[in-house]
Amino acid sequence: MPIATVNPANGETLRTFDALDEQEIDRRISAAHRAFRVHRTTGFAERARLLNRAADLLDEDREDIARTMTLEMGKPLGAARAEAAKCAKAMRWYAAHAEHLLADEYPDEADVKDSGAARACVRYRPLGPVLAVMPWNFPLWQVMRFAAPALMAGNTGLLKHASNVPQTALYLEDLFSRAGYPEGCFQTLLIGSGAVEAVLRDPRVVAATLTGSEPAGRSVASVAGDEIKKTVLELGGSDPFLVLPSADVAGAARTAVTARTQNNGQSCIAAKRFIVHTDVYDEFAERFTAGMRALTVGDPMEDSTEVGPLSSERGRADLEELVDDAVRRGATVLCGGGRPEHLDGGLERGWFYTPTVLTGITPAMRIHREETFGPVATLYRVTGLDEAVELANDTSFGLSSNVWTRDEEEMDRCVRDLEAGGVFFNGMTASHPALPFGGVKRSGYGRELADHGIREFCNTTTVWYGP
């Protein structure tokens, strides 16, 4: 895949970039290694000063970087502005909390004495240069939820971003440089996927984090495993959205529309499978389908647009194949089901797909098993909680889940039995710097954000002092 900015709203190639050669890659890894030796010795106050300065600059740049993200991957401009603001918020959160999150921990005095020590503690120390392999769908946020905690912990970062968002990737390097970070603390590597293995095998690179597809995660994890290097993986998701009899059905349906179509439906944590109790199925289906049908599809640069194009022609083709397979095998299309009509101004050449609701899904259909990365929802009718939970877990993924109920016993049951990294009641899945984020099963392992995330790339060190 070429490293290029291609506007998904009209298919126009705006800029292309040459990949770094081996000599330049080596130079940048060396710079990251040198920078780590210095950055690791700085105190939290200095790290917080730099990160807060970067957050201030990001706020100043919000409109420009939002337009860049929209041009490169097609998210509505309003969503791009919100993504930039969320990144600045997370940067300030880590600047304020990192020292506390990484403070020395002291075991119980009786246990210390029993170990034969006069005193003991646990200290969190940085590891070194970390490779971040990041996706295009949230091109700023996905990177920042790694970069902010990693830099506050004293690590340095090497970013291999998706090849279709090179200008956003270069902006991130420039942002940290303008904030005053020493050379090498955070760098972008404009390289193709074929060059990732050599970077990860370099002994100066100590760990990796990846957000992306299951095949990409498997590839990075296998190389890192061979090198015995730490990895954190956040991969795909096919999140269930359960609606049970006691739910606020109108509220659930409104939220379901947003949960399915956020970021043009291209989100790992977007609700994708809507599992609805038969007692409220008809009302939910009517409201949800009407909401999906009413969405405005069009130019992502227009503030009135709610759903923009998919990020690539291949991505749309993959989605079309899933929908066509389902329809061919008997699924019913409640709305959408194809490319939108009546687009003009060059948009007819863009990679748009109409918000779609399918029902009558069976296990024989690919869409029952595979992740749908676009504004397509599958709707299921169930007769009870047991059936709902069983269907929710009938997937190889386990990123997050959504449950609408007012029944405390049902809540407890779902927390106990749903196989996911998160359970969100009466709302939709979202990430926040204070809450750990990640999945189970083939959605990956490890956690980002909160104290769990900042400690992933730390050396948890036992410090023991003899009597």
Task: Annotate the secondary structure layout.
Blueprint: E1 4-7, E2 12-16, H1 22-39, H2 44-60, H3 62-73, H4 77-101, H5 109-114, E3 119-126, E4 129-133, H6 141-153, E5 156-160, H7 166-178, E6 186-188, H8 196-201, E7 207-211, H9 214-227, E8 230-234, E9 239-243, H10 249-261, E10 271-277, H11 278-294, H12 313-328, E11 332-335, E12 356-359, H13 366-369, E13 376-382, H14 385-392, E14 397-398, E15 402-404, H15 408-417, E16 424-425, E17 440-441, E18 444-445, H16 450-455, E19 458-465
Parallel strand pairs: 4-5, 4-7, 5-6, 7-8, 9-10, 9-15, 10-13, 12-13, 15-16
Antiparallel strand pairs: 1-2, 3-19, 8-18, 11-12, 14-17
Helix pairs in contact: 2-4, 2-6, 3-4, 3-7, 4-6, 10-11
Report on this structure.
- The strands form 5 sheets. The protein has a 7-stranded mixed sheet, with helices on both faces.
- It is built from 16 helices and 19 strands.
- The radius of gyration is 23 Å and the shape is globular.
- α3 (62-73) crosses α4 (77-101).
- The chain is 42% helix and 18% strand.
- It has helices at residues 22-39, 44-60, 62-73, 77-101, 109-114, 141-153, 166-178, 196-201, 214-227, 249-261, 278-294, 313-328, 366-369, 385-392, 408-417, 450-455, and strands spanning 4-7, 12-16, 119-126, 129-133, 156-160, 186-188, 207-211, 230-234, 239-243, 271-277, 332-335, 356-359, 376-382, 397-398, 402-404, 424-425, 440-441, 444-445, 458-465.
- By secondary structure, it is an alpha/beta fold.
- The protein starts with a strand and ends with a strand.
- The protein has 2 domains: 4-235 and 443-465, Aldehyde Dehydrogenase, Chain A, domain 1; 239-432, Aldehyde Dehydrogenase, Chain A, domain 2.
- Keywords: NADP, Oxidoreductase.
- Residues 3-463 form the Aldehyde dehydrogenase domain.
- This is NADP-dependent succinic semialdehyde dehydrogenase.
- It comes from Streptomyces nitrosporeus.
